[in-house]
């Protein structure tokens, strides 16, 4: 039997298919003049030994030039009550830190947001070009967790977890 060639999915189909994947919502920040921050749903744990995390960022993003040079970043996993924070840091063409007053400077002058479920200050270890994006690998140096449930992004909107029901 001869295998038939299969064409890759087009970008619109790809987007439509992956909208069904629920993802945690993170805001990534980096020191700069001015500091930068952006909302990401691509954050994930990569390795336990050594601890590594990753997130992806479009290389056309206004935040990319700073992240491309940053030695340190902070990743904030947002809580279900932080939809406004997610929207602010997802909005292009604004000073996101002026629009959101709940932050302070942390180690290495990296902005730290108030009130996330978890935050990690990380050292960037590698940047990998992947299509029109970059995959940023980072080593957590310090972190802290707060309280509350995570903010989730699914089907193009923000959502909160609902308790699972056991099936009989």
Automatic annotation (TrEMBL):
<dbReference type="InterPro" id="IPR012349">
    <property type="entry name" value="Split_barrel_FMN-bd"/>
</dbReference>
<dbReference type="InterPro" id="IPR002563">
    <property type="entry name" value="Flavin_Rdtase-like_dom"/>
</dbReference>
<dbReference type="GO" id="GO:0010181">
    <property type="term" value="F:FMN binding"/>
</dbReference>
<dbReference type="InterPro" id="IPR050268">
    <property type="entry name" value="NADH-dep_flavin_reductase"/>
</dbReference>
<keyword id="KW-0560">Oxidoreductase</keyword>
<dbReference type="Pfam" id="PF01613">
    <property type="entry name" value="Flavin_Reduct"/>
</dbReference>
<protein>
    <submittedName>
        <fullName>Flavin reductase</fullName>
    </submittedName>
</protein>
<dbReference type="GO" id="GO:0006208">
    <property type="term" value="P:pyrimidine nucleobase catabolic process"/>
</dbReference>
<dbReference type="GO" id="GO:0042602">
    <property type="term" value="F:riboflavin reductase (NADPH) activity"/>
</dbReference>
